[in-house]
Amino acid sequence: MTELLFDIHATDGAARNGTIGLPRGQIRTPAFMPVGTAATVKAMVPRDVHALGADIVLANTYHLMLRPGAERIAALGGLHKFMNWPWPILTDSGGFQVMSLAKLRKLDESGVTFQSHIDGARHHLTPERAMEIQRLLGSDIQMQLDECVKLPAPEAEVGRAMQLSLRWAERCKIAFASQPGRALFGIVQGGASPALRRVSAEALVGMGFDGYALGGLAVGEPQEVMLAMIEASVTHLPSGRPRYLMGVGSPDDLLEAVRRGIDMFDCVMPTRAGRHGLVYSRFGRINLRNAKHADDPRPIDPEAPCEAARLYSRAYLHHLVKAGEILAMMLLTTINLAYYEALMAEVRAAIAAGRYGDFCAETKARWARGEAQSDL
Question: Which residues constitute the domain of residue 286?
């Protein structure tokens, strides 16, 4: 393993408040990582993302290998320089996107052969190539290549994919080799089966990774299933390593996953919602496409630390959304990411104060009585 340091400062039940230490900076946990799929958090300037409270962003191996290419990014000085983000970056392995976006794909023991969704060009992604691409990008936290199965699925199929992912994990660990200052995470698979999740978790721990992710969730299953699988997995993961729930989620998902011991999250939800006229706030989710906002002079939240939430009226934001103005995407994305990062800061403070349960109850009660419920 690398020099990745993970210090737990406080716990409240299973919830943990800590810090992941990497050469490019510290990551305060629980942490929400904005998604910068193609080396950009859509509609945001990198320094503004950091100013909102993000210590780390996620970029995507699949998209970057197709365009502009990992070798090109490496020749230009690496991903941090390329996107002008000097702080930590996590890259996912591309496995999920291969399964969900590629036009044609063929999976076997060696890896997956697929056609690009951009131009139809054929590519072969193996565990070794996934590690090579991430090394070329220069990301601080790298993910093993895995196979993600959409739920619900037959247990035999989930088990086959989980075992293949374990064999790929071993190959990824060998290919990762020694990269001072960088970390490699394994990915727990197993669908909605607690038994398979346990097998996967225990096998990965036996291999020894810097951190452990939970994959194959938020792929169609109800929230209660996702939460049950978190509980089934974290029991078998070491307390001294970070735990990352991939692709999750809504503010409520974050609160409940933290309650069960998760330290890291990523999701396109706040940025995608912002591009479609939806904002997240202390009062719940607000649909600014709704005509009722056309004459509303109030801001989204007069007490928010985010200027965009305080200084622009709902009427103006509604106008921008309806007019298809680029500024609508910029402002609403900023509001959403600011809310997510502020929520994580409040989560960390509540854990440190030993009142996480009360904080969750108060936050959910405010959402429930919020004016936005008719917009859901």
Answer: 277-375
